[in-house]
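debug: dumping io for the single-chain case to check the tokenizer round-trip. Nothing else runs in this session.
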Amino acid sequence: MDQLQETLGAAPFWGFPNRYEEAMKSVHEARPVVTRANTDLGRSYRDFAKKLGLAGKQAATVQQK
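debug: decoded output
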């Protein structure tokens, strides 16, 4: 993190845990990692959304042209 802070010139806002197995399980099950309540990675994404003030809000939809 020190090297990242030095490169950016500011402290990182958030760090996600490196949980490859959790991420791959979500991919293989076609289930968003954020919905996996009992995982470190899912919990980190939810906490990140709370920090941004997005907890409980519906995702933006893409408009078709």
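debug: round-trip ok. Residues 18-53 form one domain.
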